[in-house]
Amino acid sequence: MTIDAAFSELTTRVKRVHTLGLIGELLGWDEQVNLPPGGAEQRAAQHAALAEAQHEAASAARLGELLLELEQQDATLSADQRAVVVQVRRDFDRATKLPADFVREKAAQGSRGYHAWARAKAADNFAGYAPVLEKNLELAQCEATYLGRGAAPYDAMLDKFDPGLTAAAVEKLFTELKRDLVPLVRAITASPVAAQARAVNAKLRGFPVADQQAFLREVTAALGFDYTRGRIDVSLHPFCSGTGGDVRMTTRFNVDAPLDALFSSIHETGHGLYEQGLPVADLGTALGIHAGMAVHESQSRLWENQVARSRGFWRHFEPRWRALFPMQTEALSAEELYLAVNAVEPTLIRVDADEVTYNLHIVLRFELEKKLFAGELAVRDLPAAWRAASRELVGLEPATDREGVLQDVHWSDGAFGYFPSYCLGNMIAAQLWYRALALRPALEEDFARGDFSWLLGWLRTEVHSHGRKFSALELVRRVTGESLSPQPLVRYLRERYGAIYLR
Predict the structure, then answer these.
(1) 33-69 tens-digit pLDDT
(2) Using an 8 Å Cβ cutoff, are 310 and 447 in contact?
(3) How far apart (Å, rounded) are the C-alpha atoms in residues 26 and 316?
(4) Which of 377, 414, 420 is nearest to 174 (CA)?
(5) What pLDDT digit, counting tens, does each position of 69-98 carry?
(6) Known catalytic membership, residue 336
(7) CA-to-CA distance for 293 and 119, rounded, in angstroms?
(8) Which of the chain's ends, N or C, has fewer CB atoms near its CB within 10 Å?
(9) DSSP 243
């Protein structure tokens, strides 16, 4: 068989594995948007059956044969072909190490876990949820052992979402960030302007959901999201799934917190723009899948924060916002609106956090996850540990588990190791932002005209088009010329929020 023929068969098989995964994502989207309560157990069985079929395709002996054939001809492969083969080898080795019955059990447990979390959060009942979380942790430890990483199980979890990432690397970056961020947070929250921001936010009440939906759809379409290849719906916890021609986003609404739904939607739009920007012909291979969740989060956080909280953005969209909500905004000046958009106030809830204090929520979760996997913290002791960590890092202590350990969906399906990607994504976003500004200093003037095409086009070229040819750390160096560092993020926060709060 020729190299081209072997490579063609390999990619055909890999794309089928990817397609099965996308079907699973669609099941997950429907589970959180449309599934009737009585269908939970049936959906768990569907997830399990599909995961088993995907695992069978991903671990097929023929894939291994094709890999060996292509690896023996490595010197004659193109750079793109080599990147695909390396990624397939990684995925194949992982799949062949995981028993089919384990894959099936983990998929079913993840589905059941979501519904158990939703019930526990609604009832503020951590005790009833703890056995599910203990099972998820047990399965994660087993998975690490199967993968030959039982001595460093948390590294195995991080590696799932960001290939090559380790707890030691994350801890080094987070320690440096905390050193500069904590005093900055204290200075900003002690500013008299912080009280003004809280007062302005108190004015934002009574925004009809239908008009919020209309506005955020106009905004996200203007940013570049293609609604012929995607949609947005409502769920308990905002998320984005899918790729290529079928990207599914969700958000949630509160009539007395209109900016929350807007920024959540822009955040998910950043994810959606990345997925829609991946090379369609290569979807499912290293050339057409994202570079990892840290890079993914950099795209969502950049659009949500650097772009959508800028003066240029609101110079363009403020008239439309006021037209939709004339009574709700008539007593609000343009400067007050900008203050509300960039309000800094510690909160117990991560998804409601401003971008200055947000990273402290991620550090909290990272430190708890490390202790869970090191055996230093039992699941039953999580609520107390969460309260103590929240008091220390955020300066607030939750009165209930609903606003503490039960607030996030991620652990319900065993997504340990995902949280650090949010903070790493913020770091990457800041580095990308300063690189973009160096190339186009008047970028905010584009925004003021409602033109986001240059930034999207630049991200398409520099980030999206590469797929997973490079790791997150490699991609950052290629695009910005510098290694990943928290310093650009600290600089950005000081520049934007220092100008508002520390004048």
Answers:
(1) 999 989 999 999 999 999 999 999 999 999 999 999 9
(2) yes
(3) 35
(4) 420
(5) 999 999 999 999 999 999 999 999 999 999
(6) no
(7) 28
(8) C
(9) E
